[in-house]
Every structure is written in structure tokens, then in C-alpha cells.
Amino acid sequence: MIKVSIYGASGYAGGEILRILLSHPKVTIQQVTSRKFSGQLVSQVHPNLRKKTDLIFSHPDQLKKCDLLFVALPNGESMKYMTNLKTFAKKIIDLGADYRLREQAVFENWYKQKHLNPEMLEKFVYGIVELHRQEIKKTSYVAGPGCEATVSILSLYPLIKHNLIEGKIIIDAKMSSSQAGLKPSFSSHHPERSGVVRSYMPSGHRHTAEIIQELSPFANDLDVAISATALDMVRGLLVTIHTVPKNGITEKEVWKAYRTEYANEPFIRIVKERQGLYRFPEPKILQGTNFCDIGFEMDTVSKRLVVIGAIDNLVKGTAGQAVQAMNLMYGFPEETGLEFPGLHPI
Amino acid sequence: MIKVSIYGASGYAGGEILRILLSHPKVTIQQVTSRKFSGQLVSQVHPNLRKKTDLIFSHPDQLKKCDLLFVALPNGESMKYMTNLKTFAKKIIDLGADYRLREQAVFENWYKQKHLNPEMLEKFVYGIVELHRQEIKKTSYVAGPGCEATVSILSLYPLIKHNLIEGKIIIDAKMSSSQAGLKPSFSSHHPERSGVVRSYMPSGHRHTAEIIQELSPFANDLDVAISATALDMVRGLLVTIHTVPKNGITEKEVWKAYRTEYANEPFIRIVKERQGLYRFPEPKILQGTNFCDIGFEMDTVSKRLVVIGAIDNLVKGTAGQAVQAMNLMYGFPEETGLEFPGLHPI
Amino acid sequence: MIKVSIYGASGYAGGEILRILLSHPKVTIQQVTSRKFSGQLVSQVHPNLRKKTDLIFSHPDQLKKCDLLFVALPNGESMKYMTNLKTFAKKIIDLGADYRLREQAVFENWYKQKHLNPEMLEKFVYGIVELHRQEIKKTSYVAGPGCEATVSILSLYPLIKHNLIEGKIIIDAKMSSSQAGLKPSFSSHHPERSGVVRSYMPSGHRHTAEIIQELSPFANDLDVAISATALDMVRGLLVTIHTVPKNGITEKEVWKAYRTEYANEPFIRIVKERQGLYRFPEPKILQGTNFCDIGFEMDTVSKRLVVIGAIDNLVKGTAGQAVQAMNLMYGFPEETGLEFPGLHPI
Amino acid sequence: MIKVSIYGASGYAGGEILRILLSHPKVTIQQVTSRKFSGQLVSQVHPNLRKKTDLIFSHPDQLKKCDLLFVALPNGESMKYMTNLKTFAKKIIDLGADYRLREQAVFENWYKQKHLNPEMLEKFVYGIVELHRQEIKKTSYVAGPGCEATVSILSLYPLIKHNLIEGKIIIDAKMSSSQAGLKPSFSSHHPERSGVVRSYMPSGHRHTAEIIQELSPFANDLDVAISATALDMVRGLLVTIHTVPKNGITEKEVWKAYRTEYANEPFIRIVKERQGLYRFPEPKILQGTNFCDIGFEMDTVSKRLVVIGAIDNLVKGTAGQAVQAMNLMYGFPEETGLEFPGLHPI
Question: Is D186's Cβ below 8 Å from some Cβ in B?
């Protein structure tokens, strides 16, 4: 049994880590912190955990030593505290954006702020298990990837590694409201947010930097563009990725690339069926699961390879992926705590 | 390990039983049958089960002997086959309406059809564990209650048993679309069904008969009325029950009644808080769980005790409750396989 | 042509009045005020009005004289300004709660605040046209009714006037998010508000006072109780009203009461059909319309008359009803500007 | 006043035409036909029209002569009847796909069926008013464009005409459920259709043919690809179009192209704002309107011009556009009957 604490546990990401760890057979939850809800029952903030835990939020200043610390703070916050936090835990998994980009300049360019703790950047391993399994097993510091980056990287990685596509990669991302966190604003106000198909970021999405960082080792001059549209859903993320296959590439070769890379991956499913309603990845049936579903279609009219990827942004895109990394770091079976299959219908 | 089969596993109820049993440590699934999908992968019908099972649907005629058989057929079907089915399994849990009502005449009155197997009626125990735990432990035949009846009975039982209310009991039920099963119709057609607040049954709901049957032992001349409204949700069921407290009854006595009956119930939570958004039961955070959440409020202006109950109609209202009964029948811990806490946000 | 201004035009109610008046052939919009958006284009706040108007918000301090002034402020605000506002306009229609209740004590009891302008209370006519048509024609001051009160009063009025029901009247109200206005809060935050069936007010709804005030002249000792549940919809309001018919009352007599009172009402439709999906009132097809649809069913098992009423809370429940009153006050045809039939499907 | 009939008026398109024409001051509706609902009240099928019309469906065989006939049949049907139908009306507007493509071979290639009435193909004018205003004024036969084609063509036309883009044009279309018509199927079954982000057609959308036909006169070798994703909405259509600007093209030139083509168009709005939630086109506020909203953003990281277009698929995408064409054909002001501004919030 390892002792784990969650630093910043009142948000949606922290709540999901807690939900997952509460049924994890190798983990004891030592503390969950919240400045705002310190002293209150966890289940008042996360009502799904009623009768599942009697935990009470600790104030961050009362943090005690633990084996592993999950840090779930808003972007730009964890780099303020990291030097201190690492004195409390041998291993840290940070879920924010602060340690995802290895180059300080890249971070500062995309996030428009100075990095306050650049010396730690090289210590963190980017936490996509499917790409960095061996490094994660050995590291003490993992940076949890962005949800949009996670599904895009996983969808593209085999194609780029196997040299199957060329030219511009266009990621048309369909996003849900939980991605923006739990702070209310006019943009999240139900009468304004309900029913939207909102082009909130036609270009300039910051996860582009992560995608380029992770896929660049396998390709020269990656040209990646994201357009993000917010939909009326709470959880879930689907990317429709428009790519151009290299001349002569066949569907068979695409299948082969995905199988080669992912056949043994416990959380990746290639979803491409001839019939049925769920022929391609569909985020609605992924809610609560750690799966990343990936499908594709060759466009026979316009020369195009359309790739479709789906995840639950709060699980495979955040908390589940982080627990998957934790399992690796401690040698637990990788699926531990992440077995929920998802619901149908939902 | 017991060997379990599901007779009629392509529907929503059968699919949920299968989902739950796939992670049940004491169960081996022997067969799942479907006339229509015989020979096909289960995951083509239940796409959430991809990578979770390689099961293939068997034709009902190929049913083999097993320890326990779940029967998940449309109302009016299982009574046609029961005489035969019981030669295949020592224990049977039937999820349809055919064996819920002990009196043949009551069944025929509410369902407007002749009962084809009345001699078996008295062998079935009505499957609400919280009311019939001891009988279920000993029986071989359980009739799974209707979802609307389940949440109504559980919400009302302590009040009636403790003699706290009088007069008419009005159940205003808010229903979801999965309750009607997987057969498409114009009433389930998305452009017509989306966004509705549809008074589809202002009176005459057949679950009334179950409620009266179960609560009558504790009260004379029960007067129960249901009005059912369909909402734009797939899973979930909330009842707002308008009752009249007897003279002088206080909130404290109501609390006491619920605590007396339910303090040790693993799947019932009394939800009644002073603050927060989830002060009362809310079906959206119950999706996938076996909880029945119950709350109440004394109306100080009009003399009224408003009781609010919520469940996931496919879990506590159908498949989860059935597995809970199975656990009892075999002496497994009652929560086995039913631990999922639900998601927030969702 | 009359000159009309809207005082407080950036909210949802003010925006709807503006939308309706922009196509009203007898009205010139003189000013629309907003403290916060003063100087900005109206269409930046109400994006549906792009290309429909070039109006710019005026600061409230720049209000000029006009023929009629709509006041659309949060509850408790208009009574602060009314003495001043009536120097600017011959006629005023106030949409808030401040002038709906004729008795100061009743207002103060339900709204838990002192009334700041009690001397004006008796000057205001309660603005349900169907009950107060003659008074509205003659008055200079109209108080726009609450949305929940509007649909409840209209649904119940014929039954009570014709002496058809007795005992407790239970209004189970299904509410939408626009009713709470445009101020974001955690309770309106999309991840928390989406998908809810939220019992936010099982008892104690303040519109009870309006209902009792308006129906008391026709009945002794009215016992009215409201339970309000918030749903995942932006517009629309449905009430399921559970009443007890007096002994011997038949469906025919109920029909007769509704026909007697409403046969000539342009905005009331009795919706009670034998077949089809829209047999009873359904708020989704009322979006944007000024209709109040009313239906009913006799419960033949439990002695009950279930009445179902539906409106668009922002139109018949607020802005449309106010324009209907304005039409009466100026002798315009009552339907003017309110002809939109609603959409199907939607 | 012209006498208009609708042939096939029980579907969603026919219902919308009827809704619009009922408030059109220059039109008398002579007949609305339906084989299935012949003899029944129109309002039983289109419940929004209760109290708006007493029309009864005629059987198609009872069709009488009229001035203009709208034909709203499923694809492949109107070409069976056209030879006969044109003996009944001087002018015909056909809403199906049968007469949209001028080349018989192109039709047969995309629709995988033989054209039964190819000799009429050249008589029909493609009904996008903004591109074919002069021809529509003079023609007797208009083919109503597909909804997806309409918004795509309108979004792209100025860019292509002004020679601003090059290379592949990728249309990522977000679709609603009403597009599939009123026939229930498992894919439209609420539990399966609710909440989806369904990649139902990653390539091969038949509207591609219309887009190429209409834009080819302005460009060589158009390379157009559509990927269509179905969302959980009933009405509305948004396209995110990923294009590559020619070298050196500036945002200013894009603005100029749109202004040049559309500044005087009554139903096109360029929506591109610096702030606010509705900075770009948003289909939810277009419900019921005939607007096509178009916006764009230059991607400064990846060389891209992202164009966003939104319509109500049943109005500007079908019925409204058809009435707009009718207005032109008879010299009525183009906006007549199409003034509804849309609702906010909704």
C-alpha cells in the first residue's frame, strides 16, 4: 500500500483522481487538500462520493509527507509551489500545464507568462504512457498531458511514426464544458452554454505545442493546426483529424501501423466497424472510462485520411491517465483502478 | 464461482446485467442469448463492452444448464417460457413485469392480458432487497421490480411503516428514455423526443399496482396516484412524492423513520443538506450506480411532506437491484460488483 | 405610433420585450437602458438582434420622456426607482415582483424585505390579461406576473371559478434555466446544471402568494403548494397540477369550464388529444410564442384531476404577456407583435 | 395573392414551409398533401400550428391547379412525379435532391440510382438566391439546395470568387437530427442519439457534388472534402471550413471579399467580433431564422484561413430559402415572411 495525497482536490480533476483511488487496492489516501473547503467533507464538493468516503479536506499548509503527490492546480500555479512540494513526496504527478513542455521558451511563448521553475522542466516526463512507458517507470516526476493533446497524439502517433501521412494536419476538436474547470463564468452560464456549437478557438489552441513536442521526434516540420468547438456536453472529447496520406498508402497499411503500436495497449481500442451506430469512436460511451478509442476512414474522393479519436477528457485526458502513470511508477498492473467499462445507453 | 446465463441479453436491461457481471468476482458468464443477434459479438450491440469481453450471443434454443438465469424479456414474454426455463436453472431472476404481482387478477387488470403461468406467481419473491432480504436469501425465484415502483416504494416505506403520513400519495415521476427499451418508435425519435417535458401518462401508470402491493401490509386503504413525465435524459428517474403528514409529525420523526429502516442499508443514502447544489437526490450523479438517494422537506405553508427519491432506472431500478438479489441468494457480500460510485460532473 | 422605452434592457426579459417590439407595427422604440452596457450596441448583448436593430444602450440617467416604459429590473429594484420613473412615462409596465402583491404585508412576508413604495401598490393591476382585461384597458400601471404564477393561475382559474375542485392543490413545476436571469453562479455552471432534475425548491415558492391572491376571490381557504424542479432546458415551464375534483364532477364539466372561460382567448389553447405525441401541453414547441397551453386528465383510479399547463417563461410568462397588456392599454389588436407560432421540430 | 400548394407537407421541410407561409401576406395556401395523414388536421402533425390553421391534409391524388407548388418529398421521389406535377402549377420549387445537379451522370454517380426525368434537369435553377438571383427571378423551376451545401457554398463563394484560397478545402460539418427527416430508426432512437458526437460520415457526403457544381465556375480543380458529425441538437448546422489562404492574403482582403459579395444581402451576416460569447456564428440563436451567419479567423501559426458558417438547416437550409426564392419569382420583397429574428437565450 502506498500513501497518496492530492494537492488541490476540490476541482474536477482532483475529484476524479479521488474517485478512482478510492477503489484502488494498492493505495491509501492520506490527504486531500483544498484552501476553500478546508475542514469540510469531501462529499459536499463531490456528491458522488457520499457513503464512499469520510475524508475531510485539509488545508494545503497542513500537507504531510506521502509517497506520491498528485498536484491538480490551475495552469500557472504548480510552478509556484513545486520546489516546496517535492520536499513532501518522493514522487509527483502534476496535472497542470506547467511542466508539460520541455523548453522554457516554448512554454513562455504559448502561455504568455514567465516560467517560475524552469530548472525542474527536464526532470518531468510527459505522461502519455503509450509513448513513454519505460521513462515513466523510472521517473519521479510526471507531467500529466492536456486532454486535447492526449487524444490527438495517440491518434496520430502510429501514422507519423510509420511515415504514412504528409502535409498539414488539421485537428477539428469537439470539446465539453468540464474542460474549463469548476469556476463559473458567463461563458459557462447554462442559458448561454446549453445547446451551443461554439467556435471558441478556431486557431491558436495551446495544446498544439504539446502535440508538436511529442510527435516531432518522428517527423520533420510538423504542421499541426487545431480548431476547437465547444458542444453541449459535460464530459467527452472527440477529434476529427484531417490528414493527407502519402501517395500509395492503403487502408491496410494504416491498420498495420495502429496494430503494431497499439495491439497490446490495454486502454486503446481501434474502432472502425462496417455497421452499427458505434462504427467510429464516440465519447458518450467513454464517460468514466480510461479508454482512448481511435478510428479512421480513407476518403476516396478527396485524397484524405480522416482519423477520429475520442476520450473522456477527465479520465484518459486527465485523472485516469495520471493513475495509469502511477501504476507504472510503482509496478502495479497498469489497469488497476481503471477497469470501469463505461455505460450504454447513456 | 457460479455459472450464470442471461436470457435476452441484447436489450438495455440485459446489457447492464452483463456489464455488472463481467467485473463480478464470483460469477462466470456462461451464455448470453439473443434471437436477433445470435452468433454476433456482444460488443457489437453493447459497444461499451469492447475489449471487456469476447462473448458471442447464443440462440435461445441453445440454452444450457446453469446455476442462475437472468431473464430479461419484454413484459408478457417470460411467462410464455418460464415452465421451460426453470428446467435449465436452479435459480431464476426475472426482470419483466410478469411475476411481480402476486395476484393473478391484479396482473390481468393492470396489464390487460391473461396470465399464462399463474401457478408460478406465488413462487416468486418481489425483488426489493430492502423489504424482502430474508425471503430473497431463501427463494429460488425473484421478480425484479419496476424502476418507478422501486424508487417509490423505497421512498415511502419508512413513512408508511412508521405511520407518519395519511391521505392521498401523489407521485410525480420524472422519467428517462431508456425506460422504454431499445425499440425505436416515433415517440423515441430524436427530433420529437429531445427537449421534451412530456406528460405521457398523467394517470394510470401500471407500477401503481406494485407500490400498493408492497406497501399495503403497513397501511389500510392506500391511495396512490402516479403522474409520469418524460424528460430529455437517457438514464435516471426522480420522483417527487407529495404526501400529507399526520398531525403533529415533526421533521425529527421523519429522520428517525428513515434512519431506523435504512441506516445499515448499503445502497440507500438520505440526501438532505442545508446547502450546496446537491441538497436533494439528483439522478444525474447516480448514473451507473446502485444507489437509491432519498430526501424530504416539510412544507411549512401548506401541510405537506415532500419526499424526493432518485435512482438510475437501469441499475437500482433494474439490473443492479437484480444482481444485489443474486448476491443475497448466494451469500456473496451484498455490494459485490455494485461498487461504482458514479461520476461528477457528468 | 407610440414611443416606448425599456428600462433595464440587457437582461433576458428586457431582451425579449425588445425582440417583440422590433416587429411591432405600432411601436417606436425610443430608448433601451443598461447601466453596464451603456454606449454599446444592443446586438452585442442580444446577438439574435444583429441586422435587426442599430440601437445602442442608453445609461439609465439619460432616460427621456416616453409614452410607455417597460421596467425590467431584478426583484426589489424597481420599487427604489418607481417614484422617479413615473415622471418619465404616462404608462408603466413593471416586470419584477415588487408590485404584484396588493398587500404590503404579504409582499414583506414572502420576499423578506421591506416594501419601499407601498403607496403605489394599489395603483398597479396584476397583468394577467385573461383575468383582468377590463382593468388593464383602463390602468396606467401594470405589474407583470411571475412566470410560474401565470401558468398556474391560467390552468386553475376555470376550475376554481366553476367550483369543480376541492382540497389541496399541488403544483409540481418543471422549470428552465433562463428563469434565474443572466447572472452566472455555480448553480448555473454548465457542468453542474446540465442534465439536472434538481429539486431546488420542494416547498416555499414565492409565486404561491400571487396564485392565492388571484384565485382567492373565487374560493375560500385556498390551499396551494408548489414544488419546483429545475430541468436541463433554457426556456419553457410546465406545471403538473394535482387536484381533487368535487364529487360527481365529470370530464365534460371540466371541458365546459375551460371552454366557457377561454374559447375566445387568442393565446390559450386547450390541448388534450386522444393520440399523437403532443396530446398534452409541451413547452418545447412553445418557445418564442405567447401561448399558454392547458390540458387535463381525470384519474379514474385515484380520485384526481390532473391539470397540465405549459408556457414559454420568457414570453407568455414575462415579455409577451407584458406586450399583450400594452396592446390592450392602447387599443391595439391584442395579438399584435405576438403572432409567432413556434417551431416544430425543435 | 398567389395560390400555393405544398406537395408532401407532413414532413419537417413541408411543415416549415407551411409555418412560414401561414404568416406570408401575399400567399393563400390552397392545399397541403399527405398520403398518410390525408383527411386529418394539419395541426395533429405539426402541433405548433394549433390555432394558427384549420387546414386538413389532402390526398396527393386530389391535387388541384395552383400558382406555385412546393414539392417536399424524400430524395428520389419527386423525379417520379414531376412530369405530372408540372401540369398543376406554373411554377415549382422542389426541395429534394433530384434536380439540384445539372449533370445526370453526376447525380447518378453520387446517388447510386438512375435519374428518371433527366430532360427536366436543365430547366431547374439551383436555388441559392445569393448566387442566382437573376436566374431565379425568371425561372419557373427551382431546385432547393441541400442544407449542408447551402452553408458551405455561401461561406466559400466570396473566397473562391476573389481568388483568395488554394489547395484542399475541408468542411467539418456539425449536424442536427432534423436533417434526417421524421422517419424513426435505431440511429434516431433517443437513448442512442442523445449526447452523441457521432462521426456518421467521415467522407463521401453527397452534398459535395452540389458544392463543386456551384463553385467550379470560379475555380479550377476544386478539391472539396466533407466530414460530417452528428450532434445532440434538433435544428442547426455549423461548418468549420479549413482552407489555405494564398500567399500574402491578409485578413483585410478577406473582409473585403465578404463585404463586396454580401453587404447588401438581407440574410447574410458576417459575424466576427473581438469579444463576447457569440463572436462567431452560432446555430443555436438561428433557430427559426433565415440567416446564414459567416465568420472567419486567420491562423497565424499554421497557414490557414478557418471559415465558420451557421444556419438553421430547416429554414435557410430548406424551407426559408425556398420561400426566399418564391418571393423573388413573384417580385415580392425578398424578406417577406422571413423576418423572425431568432431567440436568445434558447
Answer: yes
